[in-house]
Specification:
Blueprint (H helix, E strand, L loop, with lengths): L3 H7 L7 H12 L4 H14 L18 H5 L23 E8 L4 E5 L2 E4 H4 L4 H4 L6 E7 L6 E3 L4 E9 L8 H6 L3 H4 L2 E8 L2 E8 L7 E3 L3 E4 L7 E4 L6 E2 L4 E5 L3 E7 L14 E2 L32
Antiparallel strand pairs: 1-4, 1-15, 2-3, 4-14, 5-13, 6-7, 6-11, 6-12, 7-8, 8-14, 9-10, 9-13
Length: about 300
């Protein structure tokens, strides 16, 4: 039985004009009226317990609007990239909320809810087949987290698809109650190829996530589209190094990482935990030695519920 408060949080979302509210949020977050901008930054910093000590510029008055603050750059030393060409790192700050092998083409969302790789990547059946019996991880970014997205490993960008959809929240209550949430919400499907094979990084939109953008295509939303859009980069030779920035969210949202069978099986063996961008998903196991455990996570670092 789901808690009553989960239903209170989720049911009204079916009735709300989510795109209109998200568009309004996007406009508000770009307000350059000084007192509004500063009050918003101070208020939400306190509300979500946002730590600005790692920011390259910790002075909130230097940001032209709230969105600039929210997607602020961090000091490089605050997010060191774990070394090693074969070691995958987290592309974002967030909580690993789901992590498991892909069962044929099925991904687990929550108890009694699953969805398919075909649905997640926008109906591209031939591409989805690459991830049959592969592995996946879902990383949830709360409003307090760092919201730039980086490369988990060295790779070439092959293409990107914008998939229109709904804008439900992506907090735990909604994940538990809305079937096929990540394949239902608006999203960007980023296709990559590394020396190890193909992998896919999906940026999932949500209510009040006023904008999704990439470093190679700029702002994708808003406006919110009604049809699929596709960009092919195969001839552009766009390669990115592990840890290099590739995009950003406004407010909280989710990233889903898909890998091929046998490419990164440790991805499907993660425990639910907070992880920082650049942190190794899992340390490799040297031959004839005990497994090396990742660093323990302080309970204070757990992301709070959000968008």
């Amino acid at each position: 039985m789901m808690p009553l408060m989960d239903y209170v949080k989720v049911v009204p979302q079916y009735l709300l004009p989510k795109q209109l509210l998200s568009q309004a949020m996007h406009s508000f977050m770009h307000s350059q009226i000084g007192w509004i901008k500063n009050a918003t930054i101070k208020g939400l910093t306190k509300l979500y317990n946002i730590d600005i000590r790692d920011a390259q510029d910790p002075n909130i008055e230097n940001y032209p609007h709230f969105n600039a603050f929210f997607t602020r750059a961090l000091k490089p030393e605050s997010r060191p990239i774990h070394p090693g060409e074969q070691i995958w790192v987290s592309p974002v700050d967030g909580v690993i909320s789901q992590s498991a092998p892909i069962q044929d083409n099925k991904l687990i969302q929550a108890k009694c809810h699953d969805y398919t790789t075909e649905a997640l990547v926008g109906g591209d059946i031939s591409y989805a087949k690459k991830f049959k019996d592969g592995d996946f991880a879902v990383i949830y970014l709360s409003p307090r987290d760092y919201h730039r997205i980086h490369m988990p490993i060295n790779a070439q960008l092959l293409s990107m698809t914008y998939v229109p959809g709904d804008l439900f929240a992506v907090n735990p209550a909604t994940v538990n109650l809305v079937p096929g949430l990540f394949a239902r919400n608006e999203r960007l499907v980023l296709r990559f190829k590394s020396e190890q094979g193909h992998f896919c990084l999906v940026m999932v939109g949500a209510i009040f996530v006023g904008s999704m953008e990439t470093v190679f295509q700029g702002k994708i939303t808003p406006p919110y589209g009604a049809t699929l859009q596709h960009w092919d980069y195969k001839e552009h030779n766009l390669t990115f190094e592990k840890g290099e920035e590739i995009g950003r969210f406004n407010m909280g949202s989710t990233v889903v990482l898909l890998t091929q069978n046998g490419q990164f099986p440790e991805l499907g063996q993660q425990q639910e935990r907070f992880i920082k961008m650049g942190e190794a998903f899992r340390f490799p196991t040297p031959p004839n030695s005990d497994e090396i455990k990742p660093d323990p996570v302080n309970d204070d670092e757990q992301a709070i519920g959000g968008m």
